[in-house]
């Protein structure tokens, strides 16, 4: 896999995984269903998905060559990007008009 394909793969995985906590009623996406699921669970799932996506990015980077060390700025910007990618799911879950009980 070339570098461009790896970047697009990580971005696509980040987009999907940032929205998964908002579309699932299950605890940690696999556990029992909760109606309604608390916001704290969704935030925990969002953080876990961000860590898994970061791990995928690190694995692809290590596979292509030497991993570069990153400072706190990289992680802060990555978390902000991940939260921004999850905005469509947030809007669908909390801001849509006339929402029904899912």
From TrEMBL:
Q: Which InterPro entries match?
A: UCP019883
The alphabetical list of record keywords is: Membrane, Transmembrane, Transmembrane helix
Which superkingdom?
Answer: Bacteria
Q: What Pfam family does this protein match (any one)? A: DUF2818
Bilayer-crossing regions = 6-23, 43-62, 74-95
Q: What is this protein called?
A: DUF2818 family protein
């Amino acid at each position: 896999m070339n570098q461009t394909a790896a970047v697009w793969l990580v971005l696509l995985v980040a987009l999907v995984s940032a929205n998964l906590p908002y579309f699932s009623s299950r605890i940690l996406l696999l556990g029992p269903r909760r109606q309604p699921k608390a916001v704290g669970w969704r935030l925990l799932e969002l953080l876990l998905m961000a860590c898994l996506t970061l791990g995928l990015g690190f694995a692809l980077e290590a596979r292509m060559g030497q991993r570069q060390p990153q400072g706190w700025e990289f992680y802060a910007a990555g978390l902000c990007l991940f939260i921004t990618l999850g905005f469509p799911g947030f809007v669908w879950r909390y801001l849509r008009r006339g929402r029904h009980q899912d």
